[in-house]
Every structure is written in C-alpha cells, then in structure tokens.
Amino acid sequence: MTPAKRLTIVIPALNEQDKIADTIGGVLPLACELLDDFEIFLIDDGSTDATGAIMDEFAAGDPRIIVQHNVERRGVGAGFEYALSRAKFDAITLIPGDHAFQNEGIARMFKAAGAADLVITYRDNQSDRSVNRSLQSHSLRFILNCLFGFWLSDYHSMIVYPVKWLRQIAVKTDGYGYQICALISLLQLGLSYVQVPVSLNAELKGSSRALRMHTYFELVGTIVSLLRRVPIRDVDLSQVPRDAGRIPAR
Predict the structure, then answer these.
(1) Glycosyltransferase 2-like domain location, by residue (predicted)?
(2) What is the chain's Cα-based Rg?
C-alpha cells in the first residue's frame, strides 16, 4: 500500500508583492492535485509592502493556509523553524516566495515525496542565470562536495525533510546557511535520499539578494560548525533506517 503524501509547506517572503500571488497560486493547486493532505505556512518576514495583505487574502479562502506576520525581519531560517515547531505532518519543505521555481519542478518534488527520507531537488538551468550567480552556486557546491563527500548536484534548492529527524538537530543560523546546515546534518546521520531536477524561472536582472558579504561570513561559520559536527545533538543512531544512503529517483 502506497503511503499517504502529507506535507507541511513553508513559503517565506520579504517585500514580494509582485510575486507572492504567483507563487502561492502555483503551489496551491499542485498540492491539491498531488498530495493527500497538506498545510501551508506563509511567513511574512517583516514586509513593508502588500505581501502580508496578499497572504491574508489566500488564507481567508483556505483553512489549510496559516499566515505568520513578523514585525521585523527575522530571516528564512527563523520562519522555517516557526513552521517546523508547529508542523502536523511528517514531512516539510520550503518554497521561496519570489516565484523562483517553475511549477513543473514543484510538481516533481511533490510526486517524489515519500520516496526516501529526503527529497533533494537540484536546479538544472543555473547556467541561465547571471554569470556571477552561476559561478557562486557552482563554487559553493564544489566546496561542500569536497569537504563532506556527499557529491550532491545542489545544496540550496528545494528539499523535503523528515520532520522527526529535523527536530532533533540544532541549526545555529537563521539566514542563508540554514538549509545547508540542516541538509548536511541530516545526511551525516545517514538518512536516505533521492535527487529530483527542477528549473528556475527567468531571473530579473539585479533582483537577487543572495550572496552579500555578510552571507559569506555566515556560510563560513556554518561550514566550520558542520566540520566540528556541532549541529548534531544526542540522536539515537540505532533508529536510523538501515537502508540509508542514495536510492534511485522515482
């Protein structure tokens, strides 16, 4: 019997009034079609435009949508942890509120949910982005692969995490490095995973806020803590599935 697909979806956004409706409007029908049950946490991370109001409009039309308004910016990681602490399903994922990913890729991720402990998507059209962004992404992936040996195709795309295990690790950063820290920590436990290709929507020139100087410092701190295995709490490794590791994507 095929396990039911139940997923907690987190969509954070900061001043994305021009894109948040497209994001939610793409995710919601896919979740209705491809998942057995779901909940959506919309995180308004201190927006000063109409982002929060648009989120409230969607929530008013669907009881499965919960909106959290932050008075001040707290970071993507903080919003994700808020949803993680309240998630009622066994799996959780984060989808950026800036309509970064094409709906076809989100559909692939939803379909793969449950195929392994982790569903790790990878962006298959990063070369379409600016040369600077593409170089940064490829360099970061190469460094992480060399340091940790997992040889993933991507470390900072969309991921479906197991809530049970994610709640047992301590992630020390609230910003850009949160997902990298969480993913590598779970891989260090030996959980199984599949990789699924997704595609990015066309990037608006100059729209990226990703890798600034403070972000580089944050990433260095994240990598150092991972090398020291600081994020790993006292986890009962006997509970990790014996078939852990990479398995073929479905």
Answers:
(1) 8-139
(2) 17
- 237 DSSP 8-state letter: G
How many angstroms separate the Cα of 176 from the Cα of each of 210, 217, 223?
Answer: 8, 11, 12
The interaxial angle of helices 131-148 and 178-188, nearest 10 deg, is 30
* Residue linked to tokens 């197991």: 162
Which residue ranges form the domains of the chain, and what is each CATH number? 6-236 (3.90.550.10)
Model confidence over 74-85: pLDDT tens digits?
988 899 999 999
Tell me the pairing of strands 37-45 and 65-70: parallel
Model confidence pLDDT, tens digit, residues 113-132: 999 999 999 999 876 656 67
Please, are residues 235 and 97 in contact by the beta-carbon 8 Å criterion? Answer: no
Strands 193-198 and 118-123: parallel
Q: What is the per-residue pLDDT for 125? A: 86
Query: In the numeric block, which tokens belong to residue 39?
Result: 């909940």
According to DSSP, the residues that pair with 92 across neighbouring strands are 8, 161
- 215 vs 71, residue with greater confidence: 71
Burial of 125 (0-12, 13-18, 19+ CB in 10 A): middle
CA gap 213, 205 in Å, rounded: 19
State whether the Cα torsion 209-211-216-218 is positive or negative: positive
